[in-house]
Amino acid sequence: MPNQSSKQVSGWGRFPQFKHRVFTPRTASDLHSFVKNNDNPKTIGFGNGRSYGDSALSECIIDYRQAQNYLIDFDAQQGTFTCQAGVTLDEILKVIVPKGWFLPVTPGTRFITLGGAIAADVHGKNHHLAGCFSEHIIELQLLLADGTIISCHKNQQPDLFRATCGGMGLTGIILSATIQLKAISSTQIQQTTHKTGNLQETFAVFEQNQSSTYSVAWIDCFAKNKSLGRSLVSIGEFADDGSLTQTSKKARTMPRWFPGFMLNAWTIKLFNTLYYHRQKKPIKQETVHYQQFFYPLDGIHHWNRMYGRRGFIQYQFILPKKTSFEGLNVILKTIAEAGQGSFLAVLKLHGQANKNWLSFPMEGYSLALDFKVQDKLFPLLDRLDQLVLNYQGRFYLAKDARVSREVFEQGYPNIEKFRQYRQEHNMNQHFNSAQSLRIGL
Ligand SMILES: Cc1cc2nc3c(=O)[nH]c(=O)nc-3n(C[C@H](O)[C@H](O)[C@H](O)COP(=O)(O)OP(=O)(O)OC[C@H]3O[C@@H](n4cnc5c(N)ncnc54)[C@H](O)[C@@H]3O)c2cc1C
């Protein structure tokens, strides 16, 4: 029988948080029989809780990791990897990197599960060339609410595949998947960082480096006027030196008692100015370990505590290429004037959208910002929502904790298809998160 408990659970942003019933199946058959016999429609799967808002929260949460944590197969010749959905990207990397393979797409943390990567169809710093995580799935297995297990991929049960990748756990429980890895011959990244003076220069660096594999910018979102959009843009490629060593650096831990008031407009502005000017030259070249390049935040466990008790909201939106420059100018100006920005402000270039019904990326630029939760934040975010919609943008479900149904659905042309599919297959009677109920999925 699965363990059952009542717990205070939240996503990574620690907002919202409330009590949930958590079911922890211990074995695969526990998981199957629980899903088959569960009659609470407010039920959702929980990976490693790295989505920021309420996508993995519901009255009833299935924490399936204990029951789904096996590596199944690794073909080190062909670079194909099969494992259960509760295995984390960190665990996968520990096995594949020493053999010269890497994840084809990785988000900014390695502490997410394979199931979470598929459900959010995550993207990385190479989206403009490699697309989303789902582009590299050879096959996945899904447990439906009636207990049936179905295999699908792009050409087999394509609708189920398109609904599941990016579908935030609303089609069933992903049990396992096989992915195609990317070959590497070093764990080092050759990184070039461009210090730009404004948004125009930032865009120019992205556009000039479109053929480079990885690109990402940290934006100083407190900079105004002529400096609006000034950034440090990092361009990266795996080195070719044959060294496949893992780093032995130990992560530090953010204390539980970290006072949230330490993070205010003044300290963030100071941090941003120092961080921006830390790099003296316009262009800096260095070789860094892949963990430093892809996962700088993983170096501090529980860094989410620094926003204090009320938590924070990560606000990530994407604008189409044709409106990106003007839209980001207006949005960054609004944030700078409100004086509420964060020091985590990340700009990425994206390639074409895929065919999944709810995957977030489209050709254009996305910006992700952290905002500490405080009463004056919500009116600002409502204003930003309208600006994002004015510039034909949309919001990322994996980060969202608050957008309204009206705002969310304007950005997703396939939303009706997704809703209908859920209804036709009775999925909406079994799997619903706090988020899906809020935005009417
Ligand atoms: C520091 C940090 C950096 C990040 N950077 C990026 C980034 O660069 N790009 C990006 O795309 N994302 C990024 N993310 C977001 C993160 O990758 C996603 O939210 C991911 O889905 C989290 O996975 P998880 O295993 O923690 O799942 P959870 O957060 O627990 O769940 C996320 C969603 O997946 C569903 N789910 C989980 N497991 C299953 C399963 N087995 N079957 C069905 N549904 C399931 C849940 O129901 C929920 O809807 C970042 C997050 C953090 C904290």
Written overview of the protein:
The chain has helices at residues 28-37, 89-96, 114-119, 127-130, 158-164, 199-208, 265-278, 290-294, 321-338, 377-390, 405-410, 415-424, 434-439, and strands at 3-10, 17-24, 43-46, 60-63, 71-75, 80-84, 101-102, 137-143, 149-152, 173-180, 182-183, 188-196, 214-219, 231-238, 252-253, 283-289, 300-301, 312-320, 345-350, 364-372, 394-395. Strand 5 (71-75) and strand 6 (80-84) form a beta hairpin. It is globular and about 60 Å long. It contains 13 helices and 21 strands. The longest helix is centred in the C-terminal third of the chain and has 18 residues, at 321-338. It has an eight-stranded antiparallel β-sheet with strand order 16-12-14-13-19-20-18-21. A five-stranded antiparallel β-sheet has the order 5-6-10-8-9. It has 441 residues and is of the alpha+beta class. It folds into two domains: 66-184, Uridine Diphospho-n-acetylenolpyruvylglucosamine Reductase, domain 3; 188-407, Alpha-Beta Plaits (2-Layer Sandwich), CATH 3.30.70. The chain binds flavin-adenine dinucleotide. Residues 12, 44-51, 55-56, 64, 85, 107-109, 112-113, 115-116, 119-120, 122-124, 168-169, 173-174, 297, 398, 433 line the site of flavin-adenine dinucleotide (FAD).
